[in-house]
Amino acid sequence: RAGHRVELLHNGNDALARVGRGAPDLLLLDVHMPGLTGIELVERLAARGELPPTIVMSAYGNLETALRAVRCGALDFLSKPFRLPELELKVEVALERARQRKSGRSSGAKTGSKPAPEGDVALFHNMVGRSEVMRTLFKKIERVARFDSTVLINGESGTGKELVAKALHSASPRSEGPFVAVNCGAIPANLLESELFGHVSGAFTDATADRKGLFERADRGTLFLDEIVDLPLHLQVKLLRVLQEGEIRPVGGNADLSIDVRVIAASAVPARDRVKEGRFREDLFYRLSVIDLPVAALRDRIEDIPLLAQYIVAGANRRLGTTIGGVHPHAMAQLMAHTWPGNVRELQNVIEQACVMSEDD
C-alpha cells in the first residue's frame, strides 16, 4: 500500500535462488527462517558479491545477530515488534542509501532531490539558511517529524543541533506536548539515572519524596538527549530497554511505568567512533539512529552568513536596544573568510559583541 512492489519468499534458500536470478532493489529478511537463516543468507550473498541493499529484522534478544548482518554488509536492521510507519521510513531511507551508493556518492552527500528555488527557504523553525544543505535539512525535518522514529542528530558544537530537535518536535503531532532537553555530559553520572528516570521516596539518602524524571516529564512529548555519547555504559543499557519496551522504572521503585515519549539524541562527535572505541553500545547506536540527521558546519555553508548576520543583528537590536542597521561590506568580507570553528554560536557571539562595541549604527 506504500507503493512498492513486493515479492514474498518463505525461506532463505528460495531467497538465495531469487537473488541469483536478479537482485531486487531491497531485501527485507528475518534472522530466523526455515533452512538458511538470515545471517547465513547475508554472509553467502556478501561472499558472492551479490548482496542487494538489505534490512534485517530481529527481535530484541537477537540484536547481536542482527549487528553481525550489518557488519557483513546489510544496510540496516529493524527491531521487532515494530510499527508500520517505522518500517515504511526504514525502507525509504534504505532505498535512498542504495541509490547514493549506486551513483558513487557518500551517505553524507546530497540526497539527489531537486534543490528548492533560490530564496525558497530563509527561516524555518528559528533556523536560518538558503544554502542547498540547509534546504535539504529542512525538507528532511518536515518528512521525519511526522513519525515517532528515534533520530540521531550529528554535528559539530555550535551548529544548532537543539534547534533541529525543537523543529522536529514543533513540526510533529507531539507539538502540543512538552519538549524536554538534557545534556548527558553536564550531569554527574551518579545523579543522571535519577534525573532521567526519577526516584521514589527513600531510594537514597536525600530522596525525601517521589520525584518524576525527565522521561516522565516528557510524556506525550519529546525528550532531547544532547551529547548522548557521554551517557555512562550502565545507563546505556537502561536507555536501550526504555526504547524497546516503552517503560521506565524509577530509582528504588519496584514497578515499571509506561511512557509515551519520542527520543531525539545528538552528538558533537561521531557516535560510530565511540562504538569502535567500545565506549558506546553498538545495539543502542543502531536503535537511536533509525534516522540520521547531519547538520552542516558553518564553513560548509558560507553562503548563509549574510542572511545569518542580518538575523542575528535584528535579534541583538531587540534584546540590547541597539539600532545597528547592518554589516559593512568590509566586515562581511571578514566574516565570509573566517573558518568558524565555533560555528553559528561563534558567529552569534562575534556579531553581538560588535553590536555592543559599535559607536554608531
Secondary structure elements and pairings:
Blueprint: H1 12-20, E1 27-30, H2 38-47, E2 54-59, H3 63-72, E3 76-80, H4 84-102, E4 123-124, E5 127-128, H5 132-144, E6 151-154, H6 161-170, E7 179-183, H7 189-197, H8 214-217, E8 221-226, H9 233-245, E9 247-248, E10 257-258, E11 261-267, H10 271-276, H11 282-288, E12 291-294, H12 305-320, H13 329-337, H14 343-357
Parallel strand pairs: 1-2, 2-3, 6-11, 6-12, 7-8, 8-11
Antiparallel strand pairs: 4-5, 9-10
Describe the structure.
It is built from 14 helices and twelve strands. The chain is α/β, with parallel strands linked by helices and 361 residues long. The protein has a five-stranded parallel sheet. Strands 1-2-3 form a three-stranded parallel sheet, with helices on both faces. Helix 1 packs parallel to helix 2 and helix 12 crosses helix 14. It is globular, with a radius of gyration of 23 Å.
Can you tag this structure with a few keywords?
single chain, 361 residues, alpha/beta, five-stranded parallel β-sheet, three-stranded parallel β-sheet, 14 helices
Please describe the biggest sheet, giving its number of strands, its sense, and whether it closes into a barrel.
5 strands, parallel
Radius of gyration: 23 Å
The total strand number stands at 12
> Which structural category do the helix and sheet elements fall into?
alpha/beta
Widest sheet, order of strands: 7-8-11-6-12
Number of separate helices: 14
SSE succession: HEHEHEHEEHEHEHHEHEEEHHEHHH
Fraction in beta strands: 5-15%
Would you summarize the structure shown here?
The chain has helices spanning 12-20, 38-47, 63-72, 84-102, 132-144, 161-170, 189-197, 214-217, 233-245, 271-276, 282-288, 305-320, 329-337, 343-357, and strands at residues 27-30, 54-59, 76-80, 123-124, 127-128, 151-154, 179-183, 221-226, 247-248, 257-258, 261-267, 291-294. The chain is α/β, with parallel strands linked by helices and 361 residues long.
